[in-house]
Amino acid sequence: MAAAKRVRTFKEARLGLSKGEALEDAKIFLERERSVKGEGCPLGTDFFAVMRAVAKNDLAAAYEKLLEADPFPAVTGRIAPDPYPETQVFNRKSQKISLRAIACFVADQVRVKKASAQPRSRQKVAVVGSGPAGLAAASGLARLGFRVTVFESSHVLGGTLSYCYPLFRLPEKALSTSLSRLQAQGIEFVSNILIGRDAGIQELFDQGFAAVLLACGAGVPKGLGIPGEDAAGVLSVESFLKLRHWMKAGIEPYSTPLDVGRKVLIVGGGERAFDAARILVRLGRTVTVVVSGSDSALGVEAAMAREAAEEGVKVRTFARALRVQKDHVGCVKVLECEHLDYKIDGQGQLTTVVQPDSDFTMEADTILTVAGGRPDTLFLHRVPGLEFASDGAPVLKSGTRHETSLGGVFACGQLTEPDAGFLAAVNSGKRAVGEITKFLEV
Ligand SMILES: Cc1cc2nc3c(=O)[nH]c(=O)nc-3n(C[C@H](O)[C@H](O)[C@H](O)COP(=O)(O)OP(=O)(O)OC[C@H]3O[C@@H](n4cnc5c(N)ncnc54)[C@H](O)[C@@H]3O)c2cc1C
Hints:
The chain has helices at residues 3-6, 19-32, 47-55, 59-69, 73-79, 99-109, 132-143, 160-163, 172-184, 201-206, 237-246, 271-282, 302-311, 422-441, and strands spanning 124-128, 147-151, 188-190, 209-214, 220-221, 234-236, 263-267, 286-290, 314-316, 319-326, 332-344, 350-354, 360-363, 366-369, 373-374, 409-411. By secondary structure, it is α/β, with parallel strands linked by helices. The chain folds into three domains: 15-109, Orthogonal Bundle (Fumarate Reductase Iron-sulfur Protein, Chain B, domain 2); 124-220 and 374-441, FAD/NAD(P)-binding domain (3-Layer(bba) Sandwich); 223-371, FAD/NAD(P)-binding domain (3-Layer(bba) Sandwich), CATH 3.50.50.60. The strands form four sheets. A five-stranded parallel β-sheet has the order 3-2-1-4-16. It has a five-stranded parallel β-sheet with strand order 6-14-7-8-9. A hairpin with a 5-residue loop joins strand 10 and strand 11. Helix 12 packs parallel to helix 13. The chain is globular, with a radius of gyration of 23 Å. The site of flavin-adenine dinucleotide has 37 residues, from helix 7, helix 11, helix 12 and helix 14.
């Protein structure tokens, strides 16, 4: 879709492949690429097997193959980078063939049917949190025959996928069909329940759950740690995105009463910065993403940076935020920054240096900060026997990656690795399945 059209809509920005294109791309990929360079798919998807099934027009088989490693290919296909980045195969239109786009096409085509009721005779397992890590674990456990219930504190399921990702990148249908498939697998979902407050971990055990997996994410925003950050009009990018999603006041998405003014600065890069920026330009705001590195270190794929620039998002590189200046009533006025530069040090390493006397200011009505998050465990701190480290993450038993200090309680996703991205969160959920299974088999 052309930028001028894209920026007037919240509909999906990248148009998917037609059936003809997907089948042809799969065939060309198989003809030209016998071995791939670089690492395989981080989730372990056998993309060659998927492409062989697509090339034969056997989309059901392709989908089953995808599901072996990826519980929600319609989501992954839209938000994860292509596997084998070094492998470049071009189609007849001279476009690089995207395996994720083909996978996404397959997942969008195949209708969700009631799963061929797998015997679910094994123990009951509770999963706390319905983000990618919790959902991946729930899917893996259900595939092994465990009876799984996912408890979610929000009214919507999907964690950050549901309330942070913009609709033009992850449309509601892609997530809802993925959730329907998990429900069809027999997984139960209970929303609007905050575990640790509305029900304790012991209560879950009392209800017959043999193990509990905490997949609560890292939803407590960290600040930038600069003076003036407490000004009205400074908020984390995640808080902004949540408010926009949750307070759907009208029929149009994002038409909430949150007033950000005209000029918005986003301090920090990465997908969440550019997602927020692209929502804001669609709402007619002037947006600048302020980063301390160069154009090539924005923390997003080149295509996302290019699309954002085409839509009107500005980027200020080599700028370090120093402090927020407030007006007389305590609202954001300007962001004070300093210019950075690069220098090669004695060991030939590139280092950042501050340009002397380079302070400058940028006016802002709102400043969104991108500084990551801390584990979301406020209510779990009261659980006797569950220990937490100083960074907020649960203490894990030595020799394990998911088993906590409290017997039968496991943890995964951003709760244990606060910087984990989507694929790492999914893999963590998948790995936790192995440790839970081992624990329950003893
Ligand atoms: C806007 C945005 C864009 C992003 N884009 C990308 C991207 O392009 N690529 C990428 O790799 N990563 C991206 N990420 C990061 C990625 O989304 C996260 O890595 C991933 O969502 C972490 O998954 P999780 O399951 O650990 O946690 P979450 O998705 O945060 O899910 C945790 C869930 O637990 C629930 N919960 C918390 N406490 C409780 C409790 N006590 N009881 C019940 N429920 C509870 C929460 O409500 C939440 O639903 C992005 C993040 C954001 C915010």
